[in-house]
Design goal:
By secondary structure, this protein is mainly α. Helix content is 68%, strand content 0%. Helix 2 crosses helix 3 and helix 3 packs across helix 4. The mean pLDDT is 92.
Length: 79
């Protein structure tokens, strides 16, 4: 839940609706990949901070293998 008691899924719904409003009827392509990329990096960074940089613990929290997490850390250039 966010600070105001709104569920994360509702925050995402609101953000996507606002995105469509800003497009003003223009067609969008690749929305799924764009949203995942926007969410994945800060998610990984936050979990790594929460685990004190321990990649094994972070991978477990995220439900990823350690090797997948390492690939994503490289992909997003997370230090």
């Amino acid at each position: 839940m966010s600070g105001q008691g709104i569920l994360l899924k509702e925050e995402v719904r609101i953000a996507v609706e606002q995105y469509f409003t800003q497009l003003d009827g223009q067609m969008v392509v690749g929305l799924y990949a764009m949203v995942i990329a926007e969410v994945e990096k800060p998610l990984i960074e936050t979990v790594l901070a929460h685990t004190g940089g321990n990649q094994s613990k972070a991978a477990k929290v995220l439900g990823l293998s350690r090797s997948t997490l390492r690939k994503k850390i490289q992909q997003y250039e997370i230090e």
